Amino acid sequence: MLSFSPLLLSILALIVVSPLIWSVRPHRFRHFGWIAAIPPAVITAWLLTQIGAVSEGRHVTAVYGWIPQFGLELAFLLDGLALLFGLVIAGIGTAVALYTGYYFEDNPRQGYFYSLLYLFMASMLGIVWSDNLLTLFVFWEGTSITSYLLIAFNDEDPNAVAGGRRAFLVTAAGGLAMLFGMIILGENAGTYNISGILTAPDLAASPAFSTAIVLILLGAFTKSAQFPFHFWLPGAMSAPTPASAYLHSATMVKAGVYLLARMHPALNESPVWFWSLLIIGGATMLLGAISAIRYFDIKALLAYATVSQLGILVFLLAFDSEYAYIGVAVGILAHALYKGPLFLIAGIIDHATGTRDLRRLSGLLSSMPAVGVTALLSLLSMAGIPPLFGFIAKETLLETFFHFAEHGGGLLGWIVLAAAAVAGAFFVGYSFTLLWEVFLRKEPSAQDPAHVHHAPSFSFVLGPAALVMLGTLAPFALPWVDKSLLAPAASSIGGRVVEAHLKLWHGFTPVLMTSLAAIAVGALIFVLRDRLRAILSRAPKNLNGIYVFDKTIYSIYDLAGLSTRLVQGGTLASQASVVLLAAVAALSYALLRTDWARDLPIDWTNSASAAEVILATLAVVAAIVTVRARTRLNAIVSIGVVGLTVTVFFVFFSAPDLALTQLLVDILTVVLLVLVFYRIPPATLPPIRFRTRLRNLAVSIGAGALGFFLVLFTIGEPFSPRIADYFMLNSAPLAHGANIVNVILVDFRGFDTLGEITVLAIAAVGGYALLRSVRLYVRPSHLDSDQKPAKKE
Questions:
Q1: Cα–Cα distance between 226 and 221 in angstroms, integer?
Q2: Torsion of CA 140, 142, 148, 151, to 10 degrees
Q3: 262 in a domain, yes or no?
Q4: Are residues 409 and 506 in the same domain?
Q5: Are 260 and 277 in contact (CB under 8 A)?
Q6: Which of 86, 223, 241, 290 would bridge with 256, disulfide CB 3.0–4.6 Å?
Q7: For residue 680, is it within any domain?
Q8: Distance between CA atoms of 190 and 188, rounded to whole angstroms?
Q9: Which domain range does residue 487 map to?
Q10: Would you say 548 and 542 are in contact if contact means Cβ atoms under 8 Å apart?
C-alpha cells in the first residue's frame, strides 16, 4: 500500500479542494473566507511543527516512482530553504484566502478565483519542495498557467488579458529554456535529483556546464522579472488585488529566486554565474527602485518596488559568502511580510474609495485608522527604518557588500555598495511618498478627491494586519527566528552549515552610517519627488519594455501574414507548387551531398515482366489523359484508372491488404468526385498564361523526378539494418500480438498513435466550436448595424 508523506498530501489536498470550493459557490456565504483559509492554515501549522527537526538538520524526504524507465520520479525534500518558502507560501496564502472572501464579496466568480488560487498554491509548494529537476519543471509550468488565469481573471478587461498574455509568453519561453538547461545539467551529473546534483563531483568541468547555467538563468530571470524581462510584472497589475498580493509580492516572482538559491551550491563556481547575477540583478535593483517613484497608481508603484527587491535578492546570490546567504534568507522573509500587506491594503483602499490614484487620495489614516496603522508599519519596514524587520534586511544587504568591498572586492566592491545604498535611498523615498500622500496629508493634489464610501470591516483588514504584526515582532525575537528559520535556509543556499548572528544594534558601524545616509537621501528624494516624476515622465516610450514587447509581437504577426500571403495566398496550384518544390529542393540537396550512384548499388539487369510494363504504361497514359481531359467526367474516369492500376501493382507484389485499401479509397474518391462535380455548374476558365504553363511544367518534371529517385532509393541496398526483422521477432513475445501492423501502431508506436488521435480530436472540437460560433451568423447586408428586422404583421 502506497503511503503518502505530508508533503505530497498537502499538494494533493489543495488540488482536490480546488474544484470542491468552486462547486459550493462561496459568494453566497458572507464569511466564507474563514473556511477558505483552513487548508493553507493547516499546512502552515504542520510546517511550524517541523521547524525544530529541520533546524537540527533532520530533513523530511519522500520519493514516489513516476516513470522509472525514464528515471522520472516524484521526489520531495523539506530542508531549511524549502521550509522558509513553504511558510511564506502557505502563511501568506492563509491571509490572502481570508482576504479574498471579503474582496470578492457577493461576486459570483469568487469560487473560480479560489480554485485558481489553490491550484497555484499547490504548484508553488511543488516547486519549493521538489527534489527532482523534472518534477520541479512540471510544477513550474503549473504556476505559469494558473498565474495567467489569475492575471486575466477580469477577462472583459483588455488590459488584464494583455497583461496575462505577456506574463505567460515571457515566463513560458523562459521555462522552455530552463528545461533544456535542466536536461543538460542532469545528463552531465548523471542524475536529475537536485540533492544528487548539488554533490556531483567535477560538474563544472563539463563542456556544457556554462550552457546549462545560461539556460537555467533565463528561466529564473523571466520568472522573477529581472531586466530586461521585468516589464511583465508591472503589466500584470490588472489582476485582482488578492492575486497581485500573492503572486507578485510573495510567491510566484520568488520562484526564480528560489531556483537560483537552490542551485547555488552547484553553479556558483562559474564566472558566468557571478557576472550574470551581478549585472542583471544590479540593473534590476536600480531600475525598479528609480522607476517606482514616477507612478501614481499604488499597485504600479508597489510592482516596481517588488522588481527592485527581486533584483536585490538576485544581486546577493552572485556572492559566495555567509553574509550573502543570510541576506537572501532575511530579504525573502522581510519582503513577504511588508510587501504582501501593502498590496492587500491597496485593494482595501480601492474597495473603499474606488481609486488607487495617489493624486486623489489623502487623510486615510483618520478615516480608516486600522488600515492606516497597518500601512504605516509596512511602509516604515519597506523604508528600512529601525527597529522593523526591513531594517534588518537592509543591514544584512549592506553588510554583504561592505564585506565584499573590504575583502578583495576592490573598486567593484565599493561600486556595488554604492549601488545598494542608492537603491535603499529610493526605497525610503517612495515609502515616504505613499505614507504621506495616501494617509497623512490633508488635501489631495487632484481636483476630484476620493472619499471613503465603503469602510472595510475588521475581518477584511485582519489578514494584512496579522502579517504586519509578524514582521513588527520578528526583530524582537531575532535569536529564535535566526536559529530556527534563517540559519537553516542560509545553510541550504550555501551548501554548508551557516550560523546567523543577527542583532538590532551593532554599534555605530560603517554599515549603520551608510544606512542612515541612505535614509537621509531618501528623505530628500521624497521632498523632490514631483521634480523626479517630471523628469522620469519624459523618458522615451521606446525604452518601455511593454512597448518593445508589443512591437515585437506585432512585427511577428506582420511577418507571419506576409509569409502566408506569399506562400499560401494564391491558387491551390500555387500552394501545391511551393510544397512540391520544397521537397524537390531537399532531395536535390541530398543528391548533391552524396554519391548515390556509388553508395546505393542498384541491379539494373533485373528486367520487368510484360504485365508490369503494361500496367506501368497504362498508369502513365491514364495520368496524361487526366490532365488533358476536356470534361470533368473523363478526368474522373481516367484518374480512377490510375488508382486501379496501382491496386493491381500491389496485388502483383503480394500486398493484398494495401491493394484492398487502395481499391476502397479509389472507389470512394471517384464516387465523391462525381457527386461533387454533379452539383457544381460547368464553368469556362480563362486560358492559362504562358508563364504559368512553364511553372507547371517545371513543377511536374521536378515532382516526377522526386518520385523516381525516391522509388530508386527504395530498391537499392538499405543504409541501415532492416527494422522489419525486429518487429517480426518481437511482435508476439513483447506485445502479445500476431498482427504486426496493429502491434506497431498500438504498442511500439503507441505514443505516436495517441498523438495522432489527440490531433484529430482537437481538430474535431475546433471545427465544432467554429460551426457553433455566433460570429458565423452574419447580419443581412441590407440592415444597418443599429437596425433590426421588422416583425411580421
A1: 5
A2: -90
A3: no
A4: yes
A5: yes
A6: 223
A7: yes
A8: 6
A9: 321-538
A10: yes
